[in-house]
TrEMBL record:
A Pfam family annotated for this UniProt entry: Thioredoxin_2
Protein name: Thioredoxin-like
Recorded coiled-coil stretches: none
Thioredoxin domain segment(s): 1-147
InterPro entries for the chain: Thioredoxin-like_fold, Thioredoxin-like_sf, Thioredoxin_domain
Top-rank taxon: Bacteria
Amino acid sequence: MKKLFSAILMVVFAVGIHAQSRLENAQKLALENKELILLNFSGSDWCIPCIKLHKNIIESDEFKKLETENVVVYINADFPRNKKNQLSPELKKENALLADQYNKKGLFPYTLLLNPEGKILKSWEGLPAENASAFSKEIRDIKENQK
């Protein structure tokens, strides 16, 4: 009985450690480095505006500088449909929890700029009208105004 109880405790403890979400990790990192968090909800294999957002903005050098220069921590909450692109059950669950908290309408793409406490500073519904440079500049300006 003791062994069974010990095994159950170990599993619960392991799940508890793993349950720490990307958002919680991003919040800690953002707080330490005085960064903002960019949370993007996407359908990477079915949502054309999502695909364009990633190709034209997220994968751009201008956006990558935001990450390397400690301006933002980026989180992608992806909801692929194709079987070959499916995420792990843990990641699916985490993305669903993020959607429950921040994307109740189920918009795609939907991008949020958050402070380290998780407060929404700016949101973009759909594909942002800005190009990568303007998008990145807007984020930098918001960060500067947070000081």
